[in-house]
Amino acid sequence: MKKPTDRHPGDVLRRPLLTEKGTTLGEREASYLFEVAMSATKPEIKRAVEHLFQVRVERVGTQIVRGKYKRVGRNVGKRPNWKKAIVRLSEGEKIDFFAAS
Fold it and tell me: Whole-model pTM?
């Protein structure tokens, strides 16, 4: 079994994904979407969210989002793949991204 690395939470979580689907999940199921490092594991993501937002995480799911192929004129390129985390919080917990600190 691998030994967990002690990465800084800012190195694990890249940014919150503020989309229509993510907002709906937050309202209905207390789930939030984050872009995370490709090498981040579920336990690392859980620790990072609990540390940064002072909430209790119930469950973490991850997805690899494949990069799209794009073209400009005759040149074709590919956007990089990235990892998405869906974090469900415990009952009564909430994250407010727009609260004034």
Answer: 0.86
